[in-house]
């Protein structure tokens, strides 16, 4: 009798909590995707893209398909209490200046709420680096809103993800 109650309890627990999303280490389950934010490893955009792919063949630098997801990632970074850093995002306008796309080929949404304002009165919105800055990053100096940076900037950390 006790064991059948236990089984019933276990079944109820599993139903209540849903299927657990299994992510390959070091990725963790995040909003139905598998994400890994690495505050230690750093390098330029291409190096960090390769780094994500070295962790798992289907992984890449992150793309944001909704502003809710974008906000959740920023909240995650804020909650860690790390010092201000730069995190690479899988977005670029290299070779097609002004047309920003993610590494999966989808177009990036421009403007609010993704991209940072350059100054307080909001006259210039990022990206503003023209052909000098072709890689997207979340920059702690801009409260982790998106900015365009030189792709060769060496101190960006990766936000890797893959679709689960
Ligand atoms: Ca550019």
Automatic annotation (TrEMBL):
Residues 30-154 form the C-type lectin domain. InterPro entries: C-type_lectin-like, C-type_lectin-like/link_sf, C-type_lectin/snaclec_domain, CTDL_fold. It comes from the Eukaryota. Transmembrane segments: none annotated. SUPFAM superfamilies: C-type lectin-like. SMART domains: CLECT. Keywords: Signal. Residues 1-22 form the signal peptide. This is C-type lectin domain-containing protein.
């Amino acid at each position: 009798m006790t064991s059948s109650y236990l089984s019933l309890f276990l079944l109820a627990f599993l139903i209540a909590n849903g299927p657990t999303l299994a992510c390959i280490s070091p990725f963790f389950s995040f909003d139905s995707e598998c994400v890994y934010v690495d505050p230690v490893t750093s390098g330029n955009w291409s190096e960090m893209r390769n780094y994500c792919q070295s962790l798992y063949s289907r992984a890449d630098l992150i793309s944001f398909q909704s502003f809710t997801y974008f906000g959740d990632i920023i909240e995650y970074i804020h909650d860690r209490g790390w010092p201000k850093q730069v995190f690479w995002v899988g977005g670029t306008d290299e070779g097609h200046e002004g047309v920003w796309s993610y590494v999966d080929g989808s177009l990036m949404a421009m403007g609010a709420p993704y991209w940072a304002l350059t100054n307080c009165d909001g006259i210039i919105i990022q990206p503003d680096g023209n052909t000098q800055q072709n890689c997207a990053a979340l920059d702690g100096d801009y409260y982790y809103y998106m900015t365009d940076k030189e792709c060769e900037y060496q101190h960006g950390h990766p936000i890797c993800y893959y679709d689960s």
